[in-house]
Write a structure and sequence with these properties.
The protein is mainly alpha-helical. The chain has 9 helices and no strands.
Length: 275
């Protein structure tokens, strides 16, 4: 597909390109797919937040995860939203500062050529920060695993186990985010600078790039089922570890010591006569 047959037309070439793009079946299918997936993404995320995480009696780490990652308390949400809008506005101003934009935009998914290097640099910085955030999870998990080995009471071990599992849950969700966002940014930048290897025709390459940019909705859909899966897996692991710890504390030398302590506590209990 090319604009060569329309070069003699009085219609501006940008309008012809926009027409060819808008009515291309691949691009239109990608647009429909994006809207459909975004609607579907609402249901697994809502199910996870309302019917699993909100009703969970799990450790406070997940309650804070609900407040800080998937949603926020009212006051914090207002403050954070205002700051986020201001921060995003400043970033957009820096990206488009002194940009020489002389042509109209064909679609909102396209970045003007004059600001593309700065925008892709921003994408790269976001990806690097996500990878750095993911990397911080490793020493945190290592530290939690090390703390779990200390000789403590059953209740302390239970709390430490919940902290460890909730940390692994956060780590798993962050991993899904980094993978999807990393693939999206990498392919997007590759199409920009190495698109000629895919197609020499600019219209076909534009359609491919525009269709790929709609794939970000796939991440929005995938994060919900992934969170549900990791949460159920964590709950099963939690029940198994709790049963294992209770069994260990009830048998052997530790169990005998706990039994003696329980008997001693009964004899130490003071009884008060009822008048």
């Amino acid at each position: 597909m090319t604009t060569a047959p329309y070069e003699s037309s009085p219609v501006p070439i940008d309008c012809i390109t926009a027409h060819l793009l808008s009515f291309n079946p691949v691009y239109r299918t990608a647009q429909i797919y994006q809207q459909f997936i975004l609607v579907l993404a609402f249901f697994p995320l809502s199910y996870f937040l309302v019917f699993q995480l909100w009703k969970s009696n799990f450790h406070g780490n997940l309650k804070w995860l609900l407040a800080g990652y998937f949603g926020t308390m009212t006051v914090f949400a207002i403050v954070f939203s205002v700051l986020e809008i201001i921060f995003c506005f400043l970033i957009i101003c820096l990206v488009f500062l002194n940009a020489n934009i002389v042509q109209g935009s064909i679609s909102f998914v396209f970045i003007p050529a004059s600001v593309a290097p700065r925008m892709y640099m921003l994408y790269g910085m976001m990806l690097a920060l996500n990878i750095f955030n993911f990397g911080l999870s490793f020493p945190l998990i290592y530290k939690n695993r090390k703390v779990m080995r200390i000789n403590a009471s059953l209740s302390v071990k239970y709390q430490l186990g919940e902290v460890f599992l909730s940390t692994k849950f956060s780590y798993s969700v962050i991993l899904v985010h980094v993978i999807f966002f990393g693939v999206y940014v990498s392919v997007n930048i590759s199409f920009k600078y190495f698109g000629d290897l895919v197609s020499k025709d600019p219209i076909t390459l534009t359609i491919v790039r525009a269709s790929w940019m709609t794939m970000i909705s796939t991440y929005t859909f995938a994060i919900g089922p992934a969170a549900i899966y990791f949460y159920k897996k964590m709950q099963s692991r939690r029940e198994a570890d709790r049963a294992k710890m209770i069994q260990m504390e009830a048998k052997g030398k530790k169990g005998a010591k706990n039994y003696d302590n329980a008997i001693a506590n009964i004899w130490k209990t003071a009884t008060v006569p009822i008048d």
